Known about the structure:
Elements: E1 2-7, H1 15-30, E2 35-40, H2 52-58, H3 66-77, E3 80-86, H4 94-103, E4 110-113, E5 116-120, E6 126-132, H5 137-143, H6 145-161, E7 164-171, H7 179-199
Parallel strand pairs: 1-2, 1-3, 3-6, 6-7
Antiparallel strand pairs: 4-5
Amino acid sequence: MHSLIVVAHHDPRALTHSLARKIAEGITQANPANTFEIADLAGEGFDPRFGFADHAVHHREASPPADVLAEQARIERADALVLVYPIYWWSMPALLKGWIDRVFSNGWAFDFSPDRPFVKKLQRLQVHLVAVGGADADTFLRHGYGKAMTTQIDHGIFDYCGARVVSSQRLLESETLDPALHLETASVIGQRLFATVEAMDPVQGAATCA
């Protein structure tokens, strides 16, 4: 099975990138036949700005630009989509949000038209979210940030398109804890990635916060 691991961090030396590599290692450790592709949005220079061309796509006045088509093809090749990103202001970075804004377009991720029933088009897609945060779990719980992120991202983005969020992990206290702890968690995420999808285990498949 094949996974697309999307990383949204400008610094290739950051913990976010190390976590993505550990997830990839775990995927192949679990089964050498499994494959992966890492999409480094910053390193590849993806333009996250939703512009006139994207607006025309939304209104079905034009086909998606070449860079968007390339990203959609990457997702179509994957059995699982893994997003690895730092938490900025209690959400995902603008780079990743812009990737979603442009790539999850009308006509591809969903079908919206005023005169036809709404259609979710990504029901085959299995999604895993790995967010890296500096705050602790009590902060997310006390202020409702965790619930807000789940509502906005898990449900607001992926459920809207029909994709299923199989797991949702938050690796917190990233600036104070030993990075080795989170790297080990990332390795386990990778090792269990396709076991979760194949077995459809209701416990492993439930969204969790770490």
